[in-house]
Amino acid sequence: MARLTDTQLLELGDSYQQLAEQLKHQLAGSYPTKRYARDDVLLRQGALQTHGYLILSGVLGALHASENGGQKCKEFYFQDEFALLYGNWLTHTPALYQLKVIRDAKVIKVPLALLEQPLNQMMKQQLVTQQLLFKEAKEAFLLLNSPQQRYEYLLAKKPHWLAQLSLTEVAMYIGISAISLSRIRKRLNLS
User: Fold this and answer.
1) The whole model's pTM is what?
2) Sign of the C-alpha dihedral computed for residues 153, 173, 38 and 92 taken in this order
């Protein structure tokens, strides 16, 4: 399989820097920062979402727990990202995933009603546009690369992700088992 070049593959995640700065500036003083510990659940699966979370530090995850006890990862969110389940927000439906703290986090809890105000429609449009680009990038990442290429991409482009996530979490994100990731790491002499 041919490897995708950087120009063919949109960048995955954490490019909210400019939007994060705008949000921080707009929210300064209006909404206090909150600290959450690992494993705190900020949004329960099946609940209606009323807030998004601008991450100042730490890592959040959007995870789906199945009835048989399995868990699937939709996304991880890092510093300067806005953690939000966009599909559920835009359709006003119950959350398909829980938003959970993966690494102790400091966030600004942002009421979603704020983004519905006429004055903030440009910000909402920018968030939705950025999310569409991220989702297109992730779709290409998962469909057009082998598991080893996915991991090599994270090694090259997202070392801060690998530094903050466990190998089990990384495997879940790239759609393979922890055992398969271990084999890839052995082939790459990273074990």
Assistant:
1) 0.85
2) positive
